[in-house]
Amino acid sequence: MADDFEDVSVFTLSGERERTLLTTQTECTFMWTTDSGAPVGVIMNFVWHDDRFWLTATRRRKRIAAIEARPRVAVAVSSRGTDIGISQAVTYQGTAIVHDDRATAEWFYAALAARVRPDSVEQQAAFVAHLDSPGRVVIEVLPDVRIGFDSEAMFEGSAAGPSRTRVAHVDDEHLDG
Q: Residue 175 — very low, low, confident or very high, per pLDDT cuts 50/70/90?
């Protein structure tokens, strides 16, 4: 156990916890650079498959032209909003490839729909139909640099103890008042 928290790189996410995070979480922050070099990031749904990130957007989105011109990107995933524990995170740098072929779209749309609409086959089918537009592309990110963090490892044995931070859920009945 470190006696200070200046270097938190030792509190990395274990392989098992990282796999759980990547197969449980459905949202990431996807980051790229503009032609002027400015960093940009947006929240996107993703599928982790074959040790790669898979995402989608329409070709009209500026990020598509940007990543085709400058394919170095980053993806950050946090455990926030899941039931696997809080303050787990991993960030990757990698290379993006834009796919516009039918075979990639078909498997990816079905996989994404299953991840974001897990309770209903009908909703999955409707989501696939929503995604299946002529201008949509699939983004594959091949990660090559990784930064992981696990606050549970950091605070294990610490007098500060584990974080008890919880995301408040709004009760719809109290919104009317």
A: very low
Give CA–CA dist 76/91, Å, rounded. Answer: 4
**Structure confidence at residue 19 (pLDDT):** 86
CATH code for 10-104+135-153? 2.30.110.10
> Domain limits of the chain?
10-104+135-153
- Residue 159 neighbours by CB under 8 Å, 6+ apart: none
Rounded distance between C-alpha atoms, residue 154 and residue 159, angstroms:
11
Q: Using alpha carbons only, what angle is made at residue 144 by residues 138 and 145, rounded to the nearest 5 degrees?
A: 120
What length is written for the chain? 177
